[in-house]
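Work Package 3 (structural annotation) set out to generate three-dimensional models for the target panel prioritized at the project kickoff. During this period the team completed the workflow that converts sequence records into discrete structure tokens, so that structures can be stored uniformly alongside our sequence database. As a representative example, we reproduce one entry of 177 residues exactly as it appears in the project archive.
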Amino acid sequence: MRIITGSAKGRLIKAPKNSKTIRPALSQVREAIFSSLGDLTGKVLLDVFAGTGSLGLEGLSRGCERVYFVDSESEAVRLIIANLEHLGFSDRARVFKRRIPGGLRFIKLKDKPDVIFCDPPYDKNLINPTLAILVKQNYVDRNSLVIVEHTRREMPDCESFQTVKEKKFGQTIVSYL
């Protein structure tokens, strides 16, 4: 897996060998998401269920000021830290090992995120409880964009959010809230 563009364009990202719990975002999905976001210079991102950190790392390569990564898996946290060090982005990131969604209550963000990526394990009923915690913890406001990767079997449905766009990639749906 490689960074698509920006300061780390073409550089490899470490990925798990045979993990059943870490599912990296496909490059086609990452490209579509970031093409739709435009200029990220100075923006703050929160990458929830971060896995390898590919979404947040792509954001850092494209000029994000800071990215917060959250994942519950020790292997994922190790991968994210290794990728940050490898790409030279450690000074612009913070990694939290927390069970999601409940553990989101126990992270301290220096800045409110402009964009939040939420890419939970598919069909585990984690999307809507995670969205509810993001609202309760005041991590989002009217200007926040939350991007959720999911299947048709589990759709985002939280009264605090309005779906503004959806893109389909086979079984995967990316919803912009």
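The CA atoms of residues 3 and 9 lie 5 Å apart.
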